[in-house]
Amino acid sequence: MYKENIFIEESEKLINSSALKEENEDENGIKVSKITLDAKTAKAIEKNKGRYITITYKKDNAGKIVEELINTIVKSIEDLQEYLKIPKKKKVLFVGLGNKDVTSDKFGYLTIEKIEITNKNHKIYKDTLGITNINSVEFTRALSELLDPELVIVFDSLKAEHITRLGNTIQLSTGGLYPGSALNQKKCELSKKTIKANVICIGIPTIINMKDITEENPDLLVSSKDIDKVVDNMSSLISIAINRLF
After folding, report:
1. How far apart are CA 116 and CA 3, in angstroms?
2. Phi and psi dihedrals of 150, rounded to 5?
3. Ramachandran quadrant class, 85 (left: phi over 0; alpha: psi -120 to 50; beta: rest)
4. What is the Cα–Cα distance from 219 to 210, expressed in whole angstroms?
5. Which own/partner contact pairs does 83-88 have at CB distance under 8 Å and 24+ positions apart?
6. What is the DSSP string of 86-148?
7. Residue 216: what are its φ and ψ, rounded to 5°?
8. How much is the mean pLDDT over the chain?
């Protein structure tokens, strides 16, 4: 399983040494980091131009702040829609990526299952290349061309450097993502540039490299023992926010 790293960890290393600027909000134990990359800054740090929002909170406190978390997710999606200048009345395509048979990679599948489709919106789950032999970017582009939505929202699990990120971090961005980026070295970019539609990506970190814990078996990917509960709970939070907003 190959996953893209969450942006917040890379940005923390760059904020004090570049033009990168971060907006922070902290309320009810929920921290929201907002970073907007212009073309020049994005090129300098080898990321895509766009707006990146990261929501973090104390995992053990999540049950007490469910409503606040849902509202924060709703406001963050609205923020990205405003950045993209998306019209209020719009057709949305929801795409879940991953592998539903692997616990740490079923976030996309579970989120799509829990989203309620109304009006003219659409949803679909896309399994991995190894199972379908269909490239996720090509699949999403073809479906987008067929349905012609104003907005595509993609859900996928991500990789973190620190185990403390698992179960308490949600990333939302307009910068696109690279399905299987550790394998294909970012050759398959899923963004507005490639699918010709506005894109918002929503993900949660579910795995880390073993090298971040020990030098032995550096290529081994590991997760937390309660990842099944984490993925189920976080997919519920995000799907509820989506159902309220759309």
Report:
1. 27
2. -80, -20
3. left
4. 7
5. 83/36, 83/50, 83/51, 83/174, 84/151, 84/174, 84/198, 84/200, 86/150, 86/151, 86/198, 87/150
6. --SS--EEEEEES-TTSGGG-HHHHHHHHPPP-TT-EEEEE--HHHH---HHHHHHHHHHHH-
7. -75, 140
8. 85
Residue range 181-207, pLDDT digits in tens: 544 445 578 999 899 899 999 999 998
Residue 112 tokens read as 């799509």
Task: Give the span between the Cα atoms of 233 and 69, in whole angstroms.
Answer: 12
Return the pLDDT at 210: 65
| Residue 31 near residue 165, CB atoms below 8 Å | no
| Residue 154 vs residue 1, higher pLDDT | 154
Tokens of 128: 């991995």
Q: What's at 70, amino acid-wise?
A: I
57's tokens: 């909170």
Give the dihedral of Cα atoms 200, 238, 90, 76; nearest 10 deg: -60
Q: Which residues touch 153 (CB under 8 Å, ≥6 apart)?
A: 77, 92, 93, 94, 95, 199, 200, 201, 202, 242
Helix (H), strand (E) at residue 229: helix 227-245
Residue 82, H or E segment: helix 66-84
Q: 72 CB contacts (<8 Å, ≥6 apart)?
A: 30, 32, 55
Buried b (16+ CB within 10 A) or exposed e, 62-74: beebeeebbebbe
CA-only gyration radius of the chain, Å: 17
